[in-house]
Amino acid sequence: MDAVNASEPFSSAESRLRAVPPHALVATAGSLLAEGFGAQDVTLLLADYGLTVLQPVTHLPHTGDPVSAHDGPAGTAFTTQTPVVEVIADTTMERVYLPITVRGDRLGVLSLRVPAASADPATVLRLGEFATALGHEVATAGRDTDLYLQARRTRRLTLAAEMQWQLLPGRGCARREYAIGAHLEPAYAVGGDNFDWSTSADHLTLTVTDGMGQGIDASLLTNLAVSAMRNARRAGIGLADQAALADQAVYAQYGGKVYASTLLLRFDLDTGTVRAVDAGSPQLYRLRATGIDLIELEAQLPLGMFEETPYEEQTFQVEPGDRLVAISTGVHGTRSATGDLFGERALRQILSATRQTPPHETARAVVAGLIEHFGSKDLTSDAVVVCLDWAGRPIDSARLTPEGT
């Protein structure tokens, strides 16, 4: 194979990554970076399900000792989503930590040592492009191998959690109009809570679902509800009818014995108009300027509670700079040892304190605050937080200019 020149485009490197078996991506990346940059000690670190540590994928399918996902140079690169260069004492090498993110979904960090003389900003930028290309290949490889999923685990998932993680779209999504970050706990034992999204040229659909019950029963219920909503959405059916068809599917299976609470949102990327169906208990907060408001939506029946429940859409508006935070019952309904509801005071304090942090970190901070409020990591209910920063689209001045002027 031809050597990769550091100054040439990465198309050849990308093609070589695509050509190798899924399990060989890390080794191939190391070879390519050694050829092109003189890199050594190339290590892929993947974020675990709880977003607490970054685990080195060193000897697949096993991992080396984890490092913090929030502290140290690797954690800093991960949380800030910017490269970090660490000077190594008594050597001519420097260690570079590069965030690996695929369309807004943070996967981990690529760590490598390069000669200090070549660790200039332009080289670090090219290394960052390589890390992004590797991230896309790792995400794709997940269809064909369990190796990278295994590397993300600090312990075994429950079967219910395995089912839920397979149902999730990821933990983040971003494009110029918005950025989403999501978090859920207990990450290794979650049962019924779920978030989902889908983006098109002009719209974003976002849902937060809380299936009744715990464990396998809750996971099966949520899987049915989410799959029914996806099926309706992919058929081009409107938001209210997505809820209605999912309601019918759940009722047909369970006869009203259990149900799924769901919040459905559809954003118009041009106008910022949001269509909403509140089918249950998830809550939605809007942060605008310095204010925090609970968006009051008409509470409608959860999915599957009664046969053929009709649903109606409501609308509200988001503006550039707005932040929306959707939370499940396991967040706003959790009480402290003294009986205080988390959603009444502590939640607002955390949302205010994290206003300037990225959506991913805000979602994680809310869950961390919930655990502190509850007094234990062993939450009695699943907890989901989805944070969305809205940028919208700039007004097209051409649309506002009369013809002929």
UniProtKB/TrEMBL annotation:
Domain PPM-type phosphatase: start-end pairs: 175-386
SMART domains (UniProt xref): PP2C_SIG
InterPro entries tied to this protein: Bact_Sigma-Reg, PPM-type-like_dom_sf, PPM-type_phosphatase-like_dom
Matching Pfam families: SpoIIE
SUPFAM superfamilies in UniProt: PP2C-like
Domain of life: Bacteria
Keyword set, alphabetical order: Hydrolase
Family matches, as PANTHER family: STAGE II SPORULATION PROTEIN E, STAGE II SPORULATION PROTEIN E-RELATED
Protein name: Phosphatase
